[in-house]
Amino acid sequence: METILVIDDDININNMLCETLQTEGYNVLRAYSGTEAEMLLSDKKPDLILLDLMLPGLSGEQLLPKIGDIPVIVVSAKADTANKVGLLLAGAADYITKPFETSELLARITVQLRNARSNRRTDVLTFENITLHTDTHKVSVGSEEVKLTRTEFAILKLLMLNAEQVVAKLTILDKISLDTPDCTEDSLKIHIFNLRKKLKAVCGKDYISAVWGIGFMLTSQEK
Questions:
Q1: Which segments of the chain belong to CATH 1.10.10.10?
Q2: Which of 32, 69, 76, 208 is geometrically suited to a Cys-Cys bond with 53, CB 3.0 to 4.6 A?
Q3: What DSSP designation does 9 have?
Q4: Which CATH architecture fits 3-122?
Q5: Rounded distance, CA 98 to CA 12, Å?
Q6: Are 218 and 162 in contact (CB under 8 A)?
Q7: Is residue 83 within a helix (H) or strand (E), and if so which, with residue range?
Q8: Tell me: the pLDDT tens digits for 11-27?
């Protein structure tokens, strides 16, 4: 069950939002000031935040950059377009103006939670017993972590995104160029060799196949 934090100093609005969300099946947390919300967030991590702007203590504008990677829907009486744009550029996921229709707010919440779930899924890639975490840059085979260089990680990530498909050498170089500008056509084979060696040392399987004259692919092979 997903948890939503409601930050609003108006007790009636806060209660109304919490009751509505609970009726919809969400867990709710509540805070009545920016300072209280900041303290709560040091210990809890809700799935989404509804944030009023005019708060005692820290204002909504001051609190927003402190929230981190939790999606925030600003719920405010401020209707100025420039203010909305500024908050969206500052990291808010969405903005709804008071007064609002409950159905519209719930729809916006559904969209943001769905997007957040989708983003979390892409944080972890798996192929057989290989697991790659795109956010922490950790790779493991089974329960054993495999230490990869930045270039090896970028290559493995691309191959896992295209598992069982041949990825051309030039495509690899183009796709990983921003992360690994040091990787060249001449050094690519060395990076691939080292990556294959590290994976095989843990599991005894050679997951990366060279397709002569074209490129490489991540595929399941027998020991």
A1: 124-218
A2: 76
A3: S
A4: 3-Layer(aba) Sandwich (3.40)
A5: 13
A6: yes
A7: helix 81-89
A8: 999 999 999 999 999 99
